[in-house]
Design brief:
Layout: H1 2-17, E1 26-33, E2 55-57, E3 66-71, E4 76-84, E5 92-96, H2 98-103, E6 112-118, H3 151-178
Length: 184
């Protein structure tokens, strides 16, 4: 009899002890934020925290879950991504990054009442919805045909030719005057 009770107790503990916790779809509670000094520390999912990122810490939502945090006092909301666990202070439901807290205008208050919604579908603004068709490019060689010469190279060659011709003309005149005015 005692053995059966022990087995039932172990089975119930295993069943209840490893049951994943599910967050409510809408939560109301207090929100705090990470200090700017926390920038660079690792979060529970391994990413580094940056004060300008729109991230948060939540106790139960899986990492990567997108949440809309709404401040009912001023009507502002922000979408954040869960990257950390916490807060571990009684009465608080979410820890926001400094930027998310700034978007909600709770920096001066430090702690504020918020409403948290889980986003099932998240639409990225300005994301291209149509498939962009790229033109086909035909890349082929000229198979030994003379290559095109850049215009600047042709201009330089023409200038050099003109300078040589001017020098030759000057030499001829110098030679003609030295030989008595006869040109060869």
């Amino acid at each position: 009899m005692i053995v059966i009770q022990k087995i039932a107790l172990i089975a119930s503990l295993l069943t209840l002890g490893f049951t994943p916790l599910h967050a409510q779809s809408v939560q109301r509670g207090k929100a705090t934020f990470y200090s700017k000094k926390a920038t660079g520390t690792r979060t529970a999912n391994g990413e580094r925290l940056h004060h300008d990122s729109l991230t948060c810490a939540h106790r139960t939502y899986p990492f990567g879950t997108m949440l809309r945090v709404y401040n009912p006092v001023n009507g502002k909301s922000v979408i954040v991504r869960v990257t950390d666990r916490g807060p571990f202070i009684r009465g608080r439901i979410i820890d926001l990054s400094w930027r998310a807290a700034k978007e909600l205008d709770i920096i001066s208050a430090g702690v504020a009442m918020v409403i948290v919604h889980k986003l099932d579908t998240f639409i990225v603004p300005f994301q291209a919805t149509d498939k962009i068709e790229m033109p086909e490019l035909e890349l082929e060689t000229n198979e030994g045909a003379p290559a095109l010469v850049p215009f600047w190279k042709e201009m330089k060659e023409a200038q050099m030719k003109a300078q040589r011709a001017a020098e030759n003309t000057k030499k001829r005149k110098t030679n003609a005057s030295a030989s008595g005015g006869k040109t060869p």
